[in-house]
Amino acid sequence: MADFSSSPITSYKAVFYGRSATSDTIGAFIHCYHGGQNVMSCVFYNDENNVPINAKGPRVELRYPMSRFDSVLDIMRNEKPLYFGFIESTKVGYVATQTEPVGDGES
Question: Which of 11, 54, 97, 106 is the most exposed place for a label (fewest CB within 10 A)?
Answer without folding.
Answer: 106
